[in-house]
Each structure stands twice: as structure tokens, then as C-alpha cells.
Amino acid sequence: MSSHDLLLIRSLSKPAAEILTDYNRKVDFLKGLLEADKLPSPAEKSLANQFLAPGRTPTISSERTPASKTVHIQSKARCVGEMRKELMSTV
């Protein structure tokens, strides 16, 4: 095999730029979710959660709603529940 053939094989095995961008967006979202979960108060968690942007495309083709959006909604609901519990316990 020539070096030209090897370069061609490498370029064909690389994912498209838009796939890498989408993957990086999903990874950043999950990192942000983990960081938000480490915050001390439910109010801070909720605020941080509002700034997270879930992925725009489904993880698998049969999904109607992207998994990252579902996770974002669940995380938001958990934060609201924690805030509600904190507010009720201080009354």
C-alpha cells in the first residue's frame, strides 16, 4: 500500500465534522450536568441546570425525543423537587 492509500483509508474512517460537533455537545452537556449536581444548594443546581443545552439530535434513530433532552427534563424536575423540599423544611 502506498502512503496515498493509507491517507485515503484514514480519511474515510474519520467521522464527519458535524458528528464530532454533536458528540462534543453531548459530552459537554453531560459534564455540565455532573458539575451542576455537585453544587451545594438546590437553588444553585436549578440555576446551573437552566444553562445546560441538551443535544439536538436523537442518540438512536428510533427515539422521538433525544435522550439528552429527557435527562435534562429529569434533572430539572429533581432540582425543583429538592428546592421544594428545602423550602418546606424551613417553614
Automatic annotation (TrEMBL):
Pfam families: Use1. Residues 54-74 are annotated as: Disordered. Keywords: Endoplasmic reticulum, ER-Golgi transport, Membrane, Protein transport, Transmembrane, Transmembrane helix, Transport. GO terms for cellular component: endoplasmic reticulum membrane. Belongs to the USE1 family. Residues 58-73 have a biased composition (Polar residues). It is a single-pass type IV membrane protein. GO terms for biological process: protein transport; vesicle-mediated transport. InterPro entries: Vesicle_transport_protein_Use1 (IPR019150). This is Vesicle transport protein USE1. It comes from Cyprinus carpio. It is found in: Endoplasmic reticulum membrane.
